[in-house]
Amino acid sequence: NAGVTQTPKFQVLKTGQSMTLQCAQDMNHNSMYWYRQDPGMGLRLIYYSASEGTTDKGEVPNGYNVSRLNKREFSLRLESAAPSQTSVYFCASYSQGTGNTIYFGEGSWLTVV
Amino acid sequence: DAKTTQPTSMDCAEGRAANLPCNHSTISGNEYVYWYRQIHSQGPQYIIHGLKNNETNEMASLIITEDRKSSTLILPHATLRDTAVYYCIVSPQGAQKLVFGQGTRLTINP
């Protein structure tokens, strides 16, 4: 998973608190993604960014906001965390020139109590 | 994007070939078949992809039926480290959205 870095790796929040998950990639990829994965489930797309300056909703965008700060960085913000947002969050990046391979970060474990 | 159907779980003996099926009967002409796997709670890892022809790389082989409505991922000599959840995805090349399903939980038994 070298190339996509997520922070923090672990976080515990209280209901109603806000936080931002940071993601950076050093592969000069155009597209970046945020997924969430609940226990025993597949990955679900929250938001994606096809290029710097653009963002689009995925399957489960409610309760989240994103910012594509520059080509390298794509952040995910929880404005008012809810227990239903307890999940593992994965950032990913992609560029067509890479043989259509999506590269994932190591994941961020978020617990909302 | 076309939906895929995979078995929920499969078992395979170590050293044998693991054959993972995927149905994608609504695939359209410009959609590729991609396979990823996820070991434990790590980020998914790319395995292989193809359009029409069978493909092989150092990790696996991908067999796509002539009508492209189904495919099989083959791990030729499965090891314990191949125990993972395997995801079959269909999507146009260069697609901005890659939607994962539930995948197949493959367990390699000693």
Could you explain the architecture of this structure?
The complex is a heterodimer of chains A (113) and B (110). Chain A is built from no helices and 11 strands. Chain A is mainly β and 113 residues long. In chain A, the strands form 2 sheets. In chain A, strands 2, 4, 5, 6, 9, 10 and 11 form a 7-stranded mixed beta sheet that branches. Chain B has 110 residues and is mainly beta. Helix content of chain B is 0%, strand content 47%. The mean pLDDT of chain B is 91. The A-B interface holds A 1, 4, 31, 33, 35, 37, 41-45, 48, 50, 56, 58-59, 88, 90, 92, 94, 96, 100-107 and B 32, 34, 36, 41-46, 49, 85, 87, 93-94, 96-103.
In short:
Chain A is mainly β and 113 residues long. Chain A has strands at 4-7, 10-13, 19-25, 31-37, 43-49, 56-57, 65-68, 74-78, 87-94, 102-104, 108-112. Chain A starts with a strand and ends with a strand.
Distance between the termini of chain A: 29 Å
Ends distance of chain B: 37 Å
Please give the count of helices of chain B: 0
| Most residues in contact, chain pair and counts | A-B, 29 and 22 residues
Going across the biggest sheet of chain B, name each strand in turn: 1-9-8-3-4
Strand content of chain B: over 45%
Q: What composes the largest sheet of chain A?
A: 7 strands, mixed
| C-alpha Rg of chain B (nearest Å) | 13 Å
The coarse silhouette of chain B is: globular
What attributes does this structure have?
heterodimer; A: 7-stranded mixed beta sheet; B: 110 residues; mainly beta; 5-stranded mixed beta sheet; 4-stranded antiparallel beta sheet; 47% strand
Q: What topology emerges from the helices and strands here?
A:
The complex is a heterodimer of chains A (113) and B (110).
Chain A: E1 4-7, E2 10-13, E3 19-25, E4 31-37, E5 43-49, E6 56-57, E7 65-68, E8 74-78, E9 87-94, E10 102-104, E11 108-112
Chain B: E1 9-13, E2 18-23, E3 31-38, E4 45-50, E5 55-56, E6 61-64, E7 70-75, E8 84-92, E9 104-109
Parallel strand pairs in B: 1-9
Antiparallel strand pairs in B: 2-7, 3-4, 3-8, 5-6, 6-7, 8-9
